[in-house]
Write a structure and sequence with these properties.
By secondary structure, the chain is mainly alpha-helical. It has one domain. Helix content is about 35%, strand content about 5%. It is built from five helices and two strands.
Length: about 180
């Protein structure tokens, strides 16, 4: 497949992967800065850190070509690589809202099949999470493969902080607009 692409298409697809890699590296770096500061303050051992990565993995909204403008893809418009090249230098910046090509999305969801829109194959439906609490979690580097949801984290936080879960939420105490 790669060998059948034009040099222009290869350049664009490499840019798509580069932007995704930069985004991932930026998240990793900034998360590291926060953790480094907690450690510098001498609070790391007794700090519960829950890091949830992603929004269910990579997705196929980018169409086979990818897109510099996600609204085009959402409206079923596929933009050929040659027509995307004027946006090459802005790709990933504030002037664009890009999505990588389906091929990259599929590759970046490895080892799972397909992408998050095809949930039956788990592609993109398993996002990474890291939970660290050095003074309380002894299984450093342990890996868990069971399914969970972000709401599964709440009981852990409540237990760690010693706060009881509310028995109910009384929505009637909130102010209401009157028509």
């Amino acid at each position: 497949m790669w060998d059948s692409l034009t040099p222009e298409e290869k350049k664009l697809y490499i840019k798509q992967a580069d932007v995704f890699a930069a985004y991932t590296a930026y998240n990793d770096y900034e998360t590291g800065r926060v953790i480094d500061e907690i450690e510098k303050e001498g609070k790391l051992d007794n700090t519960l850190i829950i890091y949830l990565y992603g929004d269910n993995g990579t997705s196929a909204e980018g169409t086979p070509e990818g897109t510099y403008n996600d609204l085009a893809a959402y409206n079923g418009v596929q933009i050929p690589a040659k027509d995307q090249m004027p946006f090459y230098d802005q790709w990933g910046g504030p002037q664009t809202a890009p999505h990588m090509s389906v091929a990259w999305a599929w590759a970046f969801d490895t080892p799972y099949k397909w992408v998050k829109q095809i949930a039956s194959y788990l592609g993109g439906m398993r996002s990474g999470a890291v939970i660290v609490w050095p003074s309380r979690i002894a299984d450093k580097g342990g890996i868990r493969n069971q399914f969970s949801h972000v709401i599964d984290v709440v009981p852990t936080i409540l237990e760690a902080t010693g706060i009881s879960a509310p028995e109910y939420v009384d929505a009637s105490s909130r102010s209401r607009s009157r028509a």
